[in-house]
Amino acid sequence: LSCWRKEEKGEMINSLFILCKSGTVLIEKHHREPLDRNVLDPLLVELNEVDRAEDIPTIIPGTRCYLVNVQKNGLIFVAACISESPPLFVIELLKRIISTFVLYAGKDINEKIMQKETVMFFQLLEEMIDSGFPLVTESNVLEMLILRPTLLNKTISNVTSKKMVADKLPPGQLSVTHWRKSNVKYSSNECFIDVEEQVNAIISKSGTVVNASVKGVMTCRSHLSATPDCTISFDHSARVLDDICFHPCVRINRWQNENILSFVPPDGTFELAKYRVYNITNLPFNMRATVNFKQLGGGRVELDISGKGAPCENILLTMEFPKSVSNINCVVSAGNWTFQELTKSLRWEIKRLPDRETLTLRGNLSLSVSDSVPDGTPPVLAFFRMPNTAISGLKLREMQIHGVPYKAFKGAKYITTGGDYQVRT
């Protein structure tokens, strides 16, 4: 992010606001020319017109500027842009700010944490953004500038009188590989790649795949001494990757010509690449679901699920029924089921899906006599976990580390989870 050219006219971001859902401003940061809070009026109007804050548009035009917003746990991060700015670039910067806040807080951020750690978050914004442009966005470099508020760091600061905020940029920050700090030394060198994929799919009532895609992230955990130069090669499966985006350390030409990732890694954990794969056909299991409502105050629900051979565990199937459903009694062949009368939610939990065996749920519905028969039927939402599996077929062939005198421990781990996975009834 910090490679953005500052020679462009104007600022990328004029002002940054952090709000809660009620519209209260928790933190605001201005660059060059401060903007009044009334520039947020178009966003506040949108908030009043929707039932959920998540439903407001990501980009909202105003009279003086465009408001680009990203939300996290009831917080709204808003960038006010007066001059022409790439919207996706602004969104990525806001997401990087959120991930940095989460890292320093040690847990998911919310309104209470923002109020408690306002000074620390403001210090982070001072280092991450300079005159409206991204400056330092790598977590390993930021940790050299601003110590994380851990118990160990606080104790060292109190005993040695060491400042929690550095007076100058770390060495190497102005070099070509500005994302990596200099003079890194480890007694044990290692580099691991975690491939995490999330399946989003819509399955019709007949079992036909309406839409299926995968959203993947390759996370690198690098603890390597000196300045290593890494290359990662893939099987032919890498050619199916769509909408791929890389960390700034990746050499784009090498990927375009050879499908090889070549990079000098930052120190620590970072997202090496993000990608999508469309038109997935090898879904993790077969599933059939039917819901029927009868006129005499009852109904029937049936769920069948069977594996396809790949390991699948921690399966959770949920259905949100209309308010007219008063109770459900079910019988399952495996796992546990529950029905929450308050939320009208049916949950079926399965610890592990057996290979080539069909598991069933059969249930009777009770409808309120005073209510009419519901018009539609609710879909089934599926959540699951597939260890040691990349459902897109992506597979790393080899990782090599050049330019260093040592041999490092290397490895790769794959995992697939269920995202927005719906089966219509």
Describe, in plain words, how this protein is organized in 3D.
The chain has seven helices and 23 strands. The radius of gyration is 25 Å and the shape is globular. 16% of the residues lie in helices and 41% in strands. It has a nine-stranded mixed β-sheet with strand order 11-13-9-8-23-21-16-19-18, with no helix packed on it. A five-stranded antiparallel β-sheet has the order 2-1-5-4-3. By secondary structure, the chain is of the alpha+beta class. The two termini are 45 Å apart.
Structural class by helix and strand composition: alpha+beta
Number of helices: 7
Radius of gyration: 25 Å
Average the pLDDT over all residues and give the rounded result. Answer: 86
Query: How many DSSP E strands?
Result: 23
SS strand fraction: 35-45%
Helix content: 10-25%
Q: What topology, given as strand order, has the largest sheet?
A: 11-13-9-8-23-21-16-19-18
Low-confidence runs:
2-9
Question: For the terminal residues, how far apart are their CA atoms?
Answer: 45 Å
User: What is the makeup of the main sheet?
Assistant: 9 strands, mixed
Q: Order of helices and strands, N to C?
A: EEHEEEHHHEEHHEEEEHEEEEEEEEEEEE
Q: How would the global form be characterised?
A: globular
